[in-house]
């Protein structure tokens, strides 16, 4: 009762603009216990959108990440160092090189994966993420007029889960 009266007076004064902002400290007896939840991080993703199908696991039986990319014209498998993984504010950028033609172009594909928390190891969560195909012009003569990179995006949907390898 007494604490609620103090808080009520404080809020009244604060809202009237007559009191500087300050923090109230609760005693140990007033603090509520915090229940901790242990989440499992998803490590396997099955995604598709448009004509693109992607399967990605951040680990495998050999201990390295693996990614399979398939579209109407291509079916490629990548593992280990062939997969670039960058931690960013957007999430993990998972990038593979689909094509490298000297003195013409390099084509990469990137998915942006958020951290996915699972409440149990057997849970499967539906996710939607962007996929970006980047074409970089390459030439021995150096950059020409116009953009050096062009982008194509696709919305990928699918599942994230935890798999024991």
| Count of strand segments | 11
Number of domains: 1
CATH fold call:
Lipocalin
**What is the 3D shape?**
elongated
Task: Supply Rg.
Answer: 25 Å
Q: Which strands sit side by side, in order, in the main sheet?
A: 5-4-3-2-11-10-8-7-6
Q: Tell me the number of helical segments per DSSP (H or I, 4 or more residues long).
A: 1
Brief account:
The chain has 165 residues and is mainly beta. It is 9% helix and 47% strand. It has one domain: Lipocalin, CATH 2.40.128.
Characterization of this structure:
The chain has 165 residues and is mostly beta strands. It has one domain: Beta Barrel (Lipocalin), CATH 2.40.128. The strands form 2 sheets. A 9-stranded antiparallel beta sheet has the order 5-4-3-2-11-10-8-7-6, with no helix packed on it. Strands 1-9 form a two-stranded antiparallel sheet. The N and C termini lie far apart (56 Å). 12% of the residues are buried. The N terminus is likely disordered.
Detail the topology: elements first, then pairings.
Blueprint (H helix, E strand, L loop, with lengths): L1 H15 L23 E2 L2 E6 L2 E6 L8 E5 L4 E5 L4 E5 L2 E11 L3 E9 L3 E2 L5 E14 L11 E13 L4
Antiparallel strand pairs: 1-9, 2-3, 2-11, 3-4, 4-5, 6-7, 7-8, 8-10, 10-11
Provide keyphrases for this structure.
165 residues, mainly beta, Lipocalin, nine-stranded antiparallel sheet, two-stranded antiparallel ribbon, 9% helix, 47% strand, elongated, disordered N terminus
């Amino acid at each position: 009762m007494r604490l609620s009266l103090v808080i009520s007076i404080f809020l009244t004064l604060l809202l009237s603009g007559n009191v500087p902002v300050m923090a109230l400290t609760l005693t140990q007896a007033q603090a509520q216990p915090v229940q901790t939840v242990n989440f499992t991080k998803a490590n396997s993703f099955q995604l598709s959108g448009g004509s693109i199908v992607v399967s990605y696991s951040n680990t495998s039986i050999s201990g390295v990440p693996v990614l399979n990319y398939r579209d109407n014209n291509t079916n490629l498998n990548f593992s280990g160092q062939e997969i670039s993984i960058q931690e960013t504010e957007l999430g993990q950028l998972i990038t593979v090189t689909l094509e490298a033609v000297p003195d013409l172009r390099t084509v990469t594909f990137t998915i942006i994966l958020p951290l996915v928390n699972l409440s149990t190891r057997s849970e499967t969560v539906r996710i939607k993420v962007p996929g970006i195909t980047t074409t970089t012009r390459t030439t021995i003569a150096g950059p020409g007029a116009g953009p050096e990179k062009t982008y194509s995006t696709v919305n990928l949907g699918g599942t994230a889960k935890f798999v024991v390898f």
